[in-house]
From TrEMBL, chain A:
<dbReference type="InterPro" id="IPR028909">
    <property type="entry name" value="bL21-like"/>
</dbReference>
<dbReference type="InterPro" id="IPR001787">
    <property type="entry name" value="Ribosomal_bL21"/>
</dbReference>
<dbReference type="GO" id="GO:0005762">
    <property type="term" value="C:mitochondrial large ribosomal subunit"/>
</dbReference>
<keyword id="KW-0687">Ribonucleoprotein</keyword>
<dbReference type="Pfam" id="PF00829">
    <property type="entry name" value="Ribosomal_L21p"/>
</dbReference>
<dbReference type="InterPro" id="IPR036164">
    <property type="entry name" value="bL21-like_sf"/>
</dbReference>
<dbReference type="GO" id="GO:0003723">
    <property type="term" value="F:RNA binding"/>
</dbReference>
<protein>
    <recommendedName>
        <fullName>Large ribosomal subunit protein bL21m</fullName>
    </recommendedName>
</protein>
<dbReference type="GO" id="GO:0003735">
    <property type="term" value="F:structural constituent of ribosome"/>
</dbReference>
UniProtKB/TrEMBL annotation, chain B:
<dbReference type="InterPro" id="IPR035566">
    <property type="entry name" value="Ribosomal_protein_bL20_C"/>
</dbReference>
<protein>
    <recommendedName>
        <fullName>Large ribosomal subunit protein bL20m</fullName>
    </recommendedName>
</protein>
<keyword id="KW-0687">Ribonucleoprotein</keyword>
<dbReference type="GO" id="GO:1990904">
    <property type="term" value="C:ribonucleoprotein complex"/>
</dbReference>
<dbReference type="GO" id="GO:0019843">
    <property type="term" value="F:rRNA binding"/>
</dbReference>
<comment type="similarity">
    <text>Belongs to the bacterial ribosomal protein bL20 family.</text>
</comment>
<keyword id="KW-0689">Ribosomal protein</keyword>
<dbReference type="Pfam" id="PF00453">
    <property type="entry name" value="Ribosomal_L20"/>
</dbReference>
<dbReference type="GO" id="GO:0003735">
    <property type="term" value="F:structural constituent of ribosome"/>
</dbReference>
């Protein structure tokens, strides 16, 4: 029993430390202002002097996180990037070299080079950029090539009702498009205070 | 097959018996026992199988959705956050990843997922969700509605 109690205590102890690592970790909401709570009015009940002091610390922390990300990207130490993109109503987690399958009618033809602009999330070994809901345009560029356009295998659509003389059979094939992801890159430095200002007309896919 | 008059046309139904049956037997080739060899048994099971396959294509999608939900729930429960709280927290922070992506992240990118859970947790603490009992770091800093908590 004492062993159980000990483990329970350990688990309980872990919970708050996890929360506190938020500021320590490089991972945080590094794109849009991480301190979006700043604008909200602080309650007077908590000691006000401390609040201001800690808030500044937080701000510094955020800036330093952005700097560290930028340094890593500049030195090419970030390793292989992955991204979550929104394409044709679906979200895909991709990395360079992947082939993804778009189902249904989709205009681009074989050999087209496209860039996937709706990047919801991009990450590397030590950092993650999280979009709200998408990263600002031009921050992470995802280049892709349309590799193949084919049809699916024949799907048999068969319905039958017993003893009712009802039977229907149809065959269908829908178009499929294969896309190879060529590169995923962080195109320009991350800055902590840039609010996403994008022109939606430019985003097609 | 010459259709000289209407009665003959009615009697000549479809392709030749051999070919008609062969189409069914080809689909039943991997069945066991008499469903493979006897036409009256084979056609019954082939029809049933095709109907199941038609329904199964829809069920597969529903099953996958259920699986993703389970995975995301398990993923956020290891940080002590419920699924609904987690999703609501993310939505209010306007992070619109779907469950498929969240489950993928939970499995393959655990640290990104942890960050997401933390963000969602902060948000729900700030918004004062009833599920979040524990005071968070941000909450103490900015003192937002933290009097409500614990």
């Amino acid at each position: 029993m004492s062993f159980l109690a000990h483990t329970m205590r350990q688990v309980l102890r872990q919970a708050p430390t996890r929360t506190s690592t938020l500021t320590g970790a490089m991972r945080c909401l590094s794109l849009a202002p991480a301190l979006w709570q700043q604008n909200k009015p602080a309650a007077a009940a908590v000691a006000p002097i401390e609040v201001a002091a800690v808030a500044k610390d937080q701000q510094k922390e955020c800036l330093s996180i952005c700097e560290r990300v930028n340094q890593q990207v500049a030195k090419q130490e970030q390793g292989r990037l992955f991204a979550v993109v929104h394409l044709c109503g679906k979200q895909f987690k991709i990395t360079a070299g992947d082939i993804i399958l778009v189902e249904g009618y989709w205009p681009p033809t074989t050999g087209d080079e496209i860039s996937l602009d709706k990047v919801l999330l991009a990450g590397a070994r030590d950092f993650t950029l999280i979009g709200r809901p998408i990263l600002e345009p031009g921050l992470v560029t995802v280049k892709a090539t349309v590799v193949e356009k084919t049809l699916t295998h024949t799907k048999t659509h068969f319905k039958k009702k017993r003893r009712k003389q009802y039977m229907r059979i149809n065959f269908q094939r829908s178009p499929n498009t294969m896309i190879r992801i060529n590169t995923i890159e962080v195109a320009r430095p991350v800055d902590g205070n840039a609010e996403a200002e994008q022109e939606p007309s430019k985003r097609l896919f | 097959m010459v259709f000289l008059n209407i009665p003959l046309f009615v009697r000549a139904r479809g392709p030749d018996e051999f070919w008609r049956k062969r189409r069914i037997f080809k689909l039943a080739a991997h069945y066991r026992s008499r469903t493979r060899n006897v036409y009256s048994f084979a056609i019954r099971s082939v029809h049933r199988a095709l109907a199941y396959a038609t329904k199964g294509r829809k069920l597969k999608k529903l099953d996958m959705a259920q699986l993703w939900t389970t995975r995301v729930e398990a993923g956020c429960q290891q940080y002590g956050v419920g699924l609904e709280t987690f999703k609501e927290g993310l939505t209010r922070t306007s992070i619109l990843l779907n469950r498929k992506m969240l489950s993928d992240l939970a499995i393959w990118e655990p640290r990104s997922f942890e960050a997401l859970v933390k963000i969602s947790r902060e948000r729900s603490a700030v918004e004062g969700f009833p599920d979040i009992k524990q005071r968070s770091a941000f909450n103490q800093v900015y003192g937002l509605r933290n009097l409500k908590l614990d």
